[in-house]
Amino acid sequence: MRILYVHTTLLPPPTDLRMDRFYLLSSLLEGDIIQPIWFQTPEEVEAVFGPGSYPVHTVGKFRYHWFLSPLARGIGHRLATFWFCLRKGLELHRERRFDCIVAYSHMTNALVAGVLKWLTGSRLIVEIATSPDLVYITERAHPGLRERGMKLYSDICLHLSMLVADRAHLLYPKQLHSYPLLRNLPGSVFHEFVPVSLIDRKKDWEDQERYILLVGAPWYLKGADVLVEAFLALATEFPDVRLKILGYYPDRVELDALTGGSPQIEILKARPNVEALEIIKRATILVQPSRCEGLGRTLLEAMSSAVPVVGSDVGGIPMLVHDGENGFLFPVGDSRALEVRLRQLLGDGELRRRMGESGYARAHGELNEDTYVAEFARMVADAVGKKGVGRIGGVTVGITR
User: Fold this and answer.
1) What residues are paired with 123 via a beta bridge?
2) Do residue 87 and residue 228 come from a single domain?
3) Which phi and psi angles does 197 have, rounded to 5°?
């Protein structure tokens, strides 16, 4: 089957093909990806992906079609991006018909994908990448007019895109439960793509440096303040333990103020994924105290390294963190409950080892690349109405249920 994937993220795909999901999806599917990237010139693209990789870059049976898009984008550039997606989608469809269009996220690009569906007659899948009932209004303690306006726009996009879609990719079963009109729409529930087989396993359970780690931004949405409060309450009991917070924080002043100048807290600048994975692997505990979360990619990365995890009970986090097995859940925003769980883990090395091993087994057994590829192909087949599109890992996938 042939798909058109309409992307929104400006982050370029990995150069290691083993980490590129579309390269792996080539075992069962083929198609094109329309993607804006943060490079500003063709030369920058070719310096990373090789000569001839602009404007089209081929991986397996998929082709990336780039749209140069600097990080500082005004309304004019955004409109140009959406026009490019529409024009290029129609051009590629005329070249060879698509069976299905897949839009990443329910926002404006999903509306563009909806127009493409109407013009081409293809089926449409919309991937819901966040908790839509919490998005934008959880970015700061007191959401202002802008955040409330963006939440309203998000809800409008969600309803418009989902009402024209043939299927949704959900990260957890009740992702649309807050929206009565959308509750009974067809959906496929499975995890985000993480190349778990390439993530190194934690080797030393008692590393010389012990630290709790949070990876993510913005800091309020990711609950960094909740974690800092919990950590400061137990820091004197564990003087050898540090708290590390890793992410892009342009509003560092507020975050620094929360730490109270504690020498046990370190705020790290954002790093490339390869470097971040090394920091995750060496962590004693990874914490995801988010106020809004689709699934929590860093949780899965930590599980893949056999690092025990703690997460808030919001969004899709409970899909990854099985309370008492591979980590702990705590009520969102409850620093006292988080403190109790952190104290429990820091004081029990055998519990950390057991939970880390449990997470490792689940990540590599249930949430690996083969599972993702099989589920994605099955989702497309269900949307299109085809049976038995192929086999992976000895299992036929794409069977309409």
Assistant:
1) 100
2) no
3) -65, -20
- Reduce the DSSP state of residue 297 to 3 states and report it: helix
Give percent above pLDDT 90 in the chain.
85
User: Is the separation of the CB atoms in 31 and 210 below 8 Å?
Assistant: no
Q: Mean pLDDT over all residues of the chain?
A: 92
Q: Domain total for the chain?
A: 2
Which of 187, 181, 173 has the alpha carbon at shortest distance from 155?
A: 181
272 beta partners: none
Residues 243 and 181 occupy one common structural domain? no
The CATH number of residue 221's host domain is 3.40.50.2000
376, amino acid identity: F
In 3D space, the residue among 119, 160, 109, 158 whose CA is nearest the CA of residue 136 turns out to be: 158
The end-to-end CA distance of the chain, in Å, is 18
Query: pLDDT tens digits, residue range 361-379?
Result: 999 999 999 999 999 999 9
Exposure string for 70-86, b = 16+ CB within 10 A, e = fewer? eeeeeeeeeeebbebbb
Going by the DSSP 8-state scheme, the letter that residue 239 receives in this structure is T
Distance separating alpha carbons of residues 171 and 232, to the nearest angstrom: 33
Provide the pairing of β-strand 56-59 with 62-68: antiparallel
Write out pLDDT tens, residues 32-55: 999 999 899 999 999 999 999 999
Strands 395-397 and 390-392: antiparallel
One domain, residues 128 and 35:
yes
